Amino acid sequence: MEKKKKIDRWIALTAMGLGVFMGLLDVTVVNVALPTMARGFKTTFTDLQWVLNAYTLVYAVTLMIMSKLGDMYGRKKIFLGSLILFVVASAINGMAPSLFILDIGRGVQAIGGAGMMSLSMALVASNFSGKERGLALGILGSIIGVSSASGPLIGGYLVEHFGWPAIFFVNVPFGIIAVFLTVVYVRETPSYGKNHKIDLVGMILSAIGLFAVIYGLIVKEGHPHWAWTDARVSGLLISGIVVMIVFVFVEMRVEDPMIDIKMFKRPHFLGTIIVAFALGSGIYAYNAFLTALMQNYIGYSAVQTGVRQLTISAWSLVLGPVAGILSSRYSKKWMIVGSMVIGGIGFFLMANAISPVVTFVELWPGMVLMGLANGMVNPLLNTAGMEGTLPQDMGMVSGLLNVFRQFGTTVGVVGLGLIQDAQFENHLNARMPSLEMPAKIMNNIKDALVNAGPFSGHTIAFSSRMEHAPFAKALQKIVIHAYDNGMAAVAVTSGVIVIVGAIGAAFLMRSYVDSVHVEIKQNK
């Protein structure tokens, strides 16, 4: 009987792993499908941005809400409902007759993805115990790492061979399998909120606050030359921050709060969310820039890029279970710190490798170190985050770790993008006056390059129209060097972010579970 229960637990992990993989994959898999979508819907990349943004926004906004509902009414119920919603929305997206329907479908799909992601760790923690829990959370961390980094490869293959609807339709058969396995094998957790009132005000305030801040960052990303003080940016950011401050005051006073604010008094928990934020803003955000480097400048196809990025993602498959086993013997805190430092070194190696003739051969050592850091930290972070957490709070802790990881990714993409833009423009300003051409023409070309940005500047410099100009070769050389300066600055910044995350973990996280239990008792 005990052997059967053990097998059932691991089958249950398969169900939760499938849900997590699909939910996170859909954050990144759409990127490589955008050119095909643009042709299919006869629209522009600007209009297609909401295919990405709708998922990112709704996903981040609903993570905590779904976590709380799971804690209150049973995590299996909410996870299963989220899974079904995700599968149905995926099918609708694959058949979407218009961009408007696709945008709506992506938002609905994100609600399902948030529910699956936010409750998976808590379900694993409640379905497993002892050393098995560390191993199971380690495997789940592997899946998180692989799904976040394998979007270009999986998306590129599906789009290339089956068209863009395939990136949504592929969720349907795997989702049906996950639904069946969840119903049969996943154990339900107690409904901790039977006698509690839903904190509707807290849910609304958290949703509005997160929406305003993340949307403000998205607006800034889309308009890098708007000042932070521009009302269209600062208005959203300030409004979001004010709403989140009100949310904290409300949570401190209501009888059954959405979030127990006392969790943030625990240094160990603060350390884990700092690491989650550093992972998102350092490693995951950098992946977008690395993909652009490989495709736009080196010239690899989407599939070729994805294959080479296995140098990063494949480590998650190998190291997740290893990290889970080691976490029961050694300090998770110091393994996280060491892994983050290794990741930081990887970024510095990549910054040093970037040049006009860079290829995968020069990049892979840094990518391997990035992969090692991601492969170790993700599973360790999941386990460490659950340490000392009361059963009724596990869903919320899981949700908060994912919120900070996702929020970090959004902040990182915007922040790194602004650094790259600034370095790109500065190099153009310094070098283009040396070109032998009329000042008016030079200023027009420079303005076009700056407005296009580092990602698209290459297309302008190497366009057929520009090729015939007498100054073409010199201009192309300047543009490539400008892009390299920006990419090197992005890599160095990512390295610093990851090292800062390591420092935060070293000072705040605890080495032993017992110390965390003591803190909880003191705060209760």
TrEMBL record:
Principal localisation: membrane
Residues crossing the lipid bilayer are 12-36, 48-66, 78-102, 108-128, 135-158, 164-186, 198-219, 231-250, 270-289, 309-327, 334-357, 363-381, 487-509
State the membrane topology.
Multi-pass membrane protein
In terms of InterPro entries, this protein maps to:
EmrB-like, MFS, MFS_dom, MFS_trans_sf
Top-rank taxon: Bacteria
Entry keyword set: Cell membrane, Membrane, Transmembrane, Transmembrane helix, Transport
Per the record, what is one GO cellular component? plasma membrane
State where the protein is found: Cell membrane
- Record-given protein name: Drug resistance transporter, EmrB QacA subfamily protein
The organism is: Lentilactobacillus kefiri DSM 20587 = JCM 5818
